[in-house]
Amino acid sequence: MPETTPPYLRLYRTMQVIRQTEEQLAKSHQRGLIHGACHTYVGQEAIATGVCAHLRPSDVVFSTHRGHGHALAKGVTPAALIAELFGRATGCSSGRGGSMHLFSPEVGMMGTSGIVGPCILQAAGAGYSFKLLKSDNVGVAFFGDGAVNNGAFHEGLNMASIWKLPSLFICENNQFATEVPFKYAAGNPTVASRGAAYGMPGIEVDGNDVLAVYEAAKTAIQRAKAGEGPTLIECLTYRTRPHSEGMGDFGYRSREEVEAWKARCPIRRFAEKLVAESLATVDELAKIEAEVQAMVVEAQAFAENSPWPDPSTAATHVYAQ
Amino acid sequence: MPETTPPYLRLYRTMQVIRQTEEQLAKSHQRGLIHGACHTYVGQEAIATGVCAHLRPSDVVFSTHRGHGHALAKGVTPAALIAELFGRATGCSSGRGGSMHLFSPEVGMMGTSGIVGPCILQAAGAGYSFKLLKSDNVGVAFFGDGAVNNGAFHEGLNMASIWKLPSLFICENNQFATEVPFKYAAGNPTVASRGAAYGMPGIEVDGNDVLAVYEAAKTAIQRAKAGEGPTLIECLTYRTRPHSEGMGDFGYRSREEVEAWKARCPIRRFAEKLVAESLATVDELAKIEAEVQAMVVEAQAFAENSPWPDPSTAATHVYAQ
Amino acid sequence: MPELTFMKATLEGLTEEMELNPRIFVMGEGIGKRGGNFKTTEGLFDRFGAERLCDTPICERGFVGMAAGAAMTGTRPIIDFMFADFIMDSIGEIVNQIAKMQYMSSGRLKMPVLLRGCIGIGHSAATHHSGNYYPLYSHFPGLRVCVPSMAADAKGLLKTALRSDDPVLFLEHKSLLNIKGQVPTGEHLVPFGKAAIVREGRDVTVVALTIMVHKSLQAAEILAKEGLSVEIVDPRTVSPLDIDTILESVHKTGRLIIIDEAFAPCGVGGDIAALVIDRGFDDLDAPIRRLNGTFTPTPYSPPLEAAVVPSVERIAQAIRDLIAE
Amino acid sequence: MPELTFMKATLEGLTEEMELNPRIFVMGEGIGKRGGNFKTTEGLFDRFGAERLCDTPICERGFVGMAAGAAMTGTRPIIDFMFADFIMDSIGEIVNQIAKMQYMSSGRLKMPVLLRGCIGIGHSAATHHSGNYYPLYSHFPGLRVCVPSMAADAKGLLKTALRSDDPVLFLEHKSLLNIKGQVPTGEHLVPFGKAAIVREGRDVTVVALTIMVHKSLQAAEILAKEGLSVEIVDPRTVSPLDIDTILESVHKTGRLIIIDEAFAPCGVGGDIAALVIDRGFDDLDAPIRRLNGTFTPTPYSPPLEAAVVPSVERIAQAIRDLIAE
Ligand SMILES: Cc1ncc(C[n+]2csc(CCOP(=O)(O)OP(=O)(O)O)c2C)c(N)n1
Ligand SMILES: Cc1ncc(C[n+]2csc(CCOP(=O)(O)OP(=O)(O)O)c2C)c(N)n1
Ligand SMILES: [Mg+2]
Ligand SMILES: [Mg+2]
Description:
The complex is a heterotetramer, with two copies of chain A and two copies of chain C. By secondary structure, chain A is of the alpha/beta class. Chain A has one domain (8-301): Rossmann fold (3-Layer(aba) Sandwich). Helices cover 43% and strands 11% of the residues of chain A. Chain A has helices at 8-30, 45-52, 68-74, 78-85, 118-133, 151-162, 182-185, 210-225, 255-262, 266-276, 282-305, and strands spanning 60-63, 109-112, 139-144, 167-173, 176-177, 180-181, 202-206, 231-236. In chain A, strands 2-1-3-4-8-7 form a six-stranded parallel β-sheet, with helices on both faces. By secondary structure, chain C is an alpha/beta fold. Chain C has two domains: 3-182, Rossmann fold, CATH 3.40.50; 196-324, Rossmann fold (3-Layer(aba) Sandwich). In chain C, 37% of the residues lie in helices and 19% in strands. In chain C, the strands form three sheets. In chain C, strands 3-2-4-5-7-6-12 form a seven-stranded mixed β-sheet, sandwiched between helices. The longest helix of chain C has 15 residues, at 6-20. Chain C is globular and about 60 Å long. The model of chain C has no long low-confidence stretch (mean pLDDT 98). Classes of the chains: A alpha/beta, C alpha/beta. Chains in contact: A-B, A-C, A-D, B-C, B-D, C-D. The interface between B and C is large, with 41 and 37 residues. Bound molecules: thiamine diphosphate (TPP) (2 copies) and magnesium ion (MG) (2 copies). The site of one magnesium ion (MG) has 6 residues of chain B, from strand 5.
């Protein structure tokens, strides 16, 4: 539930969990422990963190190929995530999914998708359920700027708006879809202004400022729960690692640009702010960082030591029961 | 090519051709001469007429289930249209298409579609061809308000905009998709304002005023040919017959509303204006009306007397050559 | 048992299930107050209200995608497409999302989505309103595909679908909608994957799908007068497909022909033929034949349209030929 | 003849045709400067410029729909989907527009659209990047479907596709992209609907598709050491399907097995089986068998993924079993 004072240390911890897990995954990718694609969330941590801080397990999240951060912020453990990417039976999708198919309905992580677009529709659909069931849950879609020019965005936002569904549409505008700049791909290069086309508030926030995201999400959730309908939030951000681990990175953007954004690291910025405004001490933050580090080391060991799934289960659960 | 003075009498004639052909078709539907669906264009004549007046055979039109008016305005003869709806070999689609699949590429009528949406994309695609071929043709999509909430609208307009394609997007907002009001179906109930989402001019015109449509189309075509990109034109209008011949009409709208719109008949209004402003005499208009009537009577006879297609040709032309 | 049309039978099944289960809702174009283009939801709007009979904009992909999200969060959406042709814009949501969600979540998510629409050639509906798409859906794991031919089965399968946690394609041939049949009142469930022998016979097994069941029955009448005894099997669902019933029948008759309005290539008939030749090789006294709709988009004009669909006479002749083989 | 990878062979064919025909252009995500996710357009951007190598937003339905309009107005679009899975959002444009346009216009419009994308299971790509969709496309009239397995065929079919006025699905198994083969330079056209006998044999006919051609060749090597003589037919295109070559082979061997990574139901194997049993009934000395990928969404984890694909060993065993039948 929206709180009056943001849970500063919890936000900090979540961002640390994401960052450190991602860095661990990047290393594991180099070691060949990850078998398929691996799209990290480094640089965008503030977004999943700021939004998911408001969500209960019964609130649901639908996400994309770049979904590790959402899964972690929603409550999937680093161990379950890492094990999934290692293809182990203990992974959050029992090894069936890998990086792009993270499922943990127990905590409201309803899945990431390797196809761009569907998460938007699914979050609208969840909103429809919640409206019909008269529950006060919300459905949240996280998606990239690349999804904005897709028909799913148009159809999903329009329906969510006309039926005033309790849904949030969080666009993480990291300015590129793989290597294609959003400025090139979109006739109108601001996402937030697209809300108007659907009669929906469109809010632009600094996606590297966790408190800004937190506040925007808070307002949107209040709106959703009050039956006033969905909100589109554009979070301006940047991914500071390549599109996918192992891919080249400087054919379409410059090292300088990447470095400039690294300097705007949402975690460092937040830490500085907390200390500067005496909301936390350097020691408190260091302690969190160390705790998280221990957790990630343990998660890594857990994943590496986890068993492979049993090949005889390869075709179970295609149908119910 | 855009002219300085609108071709008043030609516009009047085209509207008459559409109206009279449609009324003939409505009668034929009652007589059982039309085998499938029949969506008439009565009330919307000014739109096809005003736009197509600017088009040469090499400019292309893509249309919808409600496409009779576009076909006629683009140069398909009433005989070829009526014969098509009668399922005859002499029809513009050799009897293969009926009301919703009208093809006459010779005159730039590239087809109507029974599926809502594709015409928008095809007109953008034609624009891409023309750009690549460096021809000065334009691609035009006519579509209803119902298509505006469809992903094809979003994707097609965005791409046409970013590549500055010579395409026109003509939305005939007759306020209903079958029986569903546009106001209900759309989060933002003006179509023209949607242009902004794609960085494209969005123009609203009175779709029952042929000169207004004519002028808007003229500007849009100039823009397209100058390489400045596409235009979205919303033509506010109303269909005064049921969605499809034989369907009920007053479960979702009132007789009064229909009558009020009948009073705004684009043909009568235009005739009155022409006479009032001494741009034509009553006699001139009556003569055109009579000529058209004769033509439609002849077309009807032609269609009724035309041969059926040969069943042995039912599967020819599935593939080329 | 009362006589009902196919359409009324599904309406009865739907009404009963919506009464029983408040989580069921319907989405589609004109399925609210209008009651559906094919009267599939007639009267339900007044009974259940706008939230459970939700009129949509024209955005098939969008609302199918929403159905996935809704099903994952505790409700049971029915998407009423009117014409199944309109589903094509949402194949991505069906094949890559809806069909895969249970598997990818290792069974932790259920996917109780019912997708219904009218299929089939007839009434000069022309090529955008005439498709038969069950082979497409049957090819993909994770989906159930119902193709009832009889009013009672339509009701029974619809009710089964609305109690199943699997996504179901429920495809109704337009020309069946007004066909009448005896329909059990109340609780009547037809299981998935259980074929019906709609006519018993000795000389040949005819597997017929949807409208072709009725045409085959007429052909069988003609052939009976010629002394030929035709057994007709209606699979009722094509995924799962009840191959055992077909094999038993072929074991008895030694001959098999599949009659299907849908296109032959990569169709249900090929599948049946392959399964029978694999498992019932020694039972076969003659080649397996298929009679399908012509491999062409559907034309509008009545004589052309008639030419692309297997007629009673062509069915009868194909059966005669096979028996003579 | 130079040795080229499959990927370089298609790139060579594409480059040659783009040189010859200025109306050809390519659309897709990252196919411009980046040269394609699978390097399918490497170097072409510099050679032909941005208009002919057009990077798109992520809106597959949109640009496939545009391709239809472009093809109708004098250009020849190639849509490069990278993964064929992404095509699913545009099935409506393919099945209801592109495939039907020539027919509906009675041949007055042509539809020279090439739709290419990578298919197939492997490399832990998981379920949204692993589909084999050729059965879906083969079911619908109006489309051509190429599934080459060899570098030379890939080039030859691609060039044929780019001179055909029909819409073509060109589907490349990811695991083939780096396989090498002798590829004729310059003019080299492989016709649609002509199968290749990739290995001659006496005891059994194996029809194998895409990657399974290579696995079947390996299996045949193993079996040769056991004294079994395996003939392998690669259809190369599945629509049209060259059934005559298959029938001739079966006439010789008396036995048929179809090896296909794609799902069995409503697949190409069923179609082949049905055609062979219909036309070659008397040639068959044993049941027809199919060995397909398991009927399940594709899992990510290596041991699971391996379990759902026919392996060389399973192929060899299936052939042995059939010969023993
Ligand atoms: C429908 C579809 N088309 C193409 C792809 C291939 N693809 C994977 S990620 C990606 C770029 C996505 O960009 P964006 O949405 O901005 O997310 P980001 O990677 O920047 O987080 C593309 C094109 C896909 N996954 N789905
Ligand atoms: C994709 C798709 N969905 C549904 C339909 C059924 N349908 C035919 S016409 C129509 C309403 C179209 O409304 P609009 O676009 O406003 O055109 P109008 O009939 O008002 O001219 C609908 C829903 C269709 N043809 N295509
Ligand atoms: Mg991005
Ligand atoms: Mg309308």
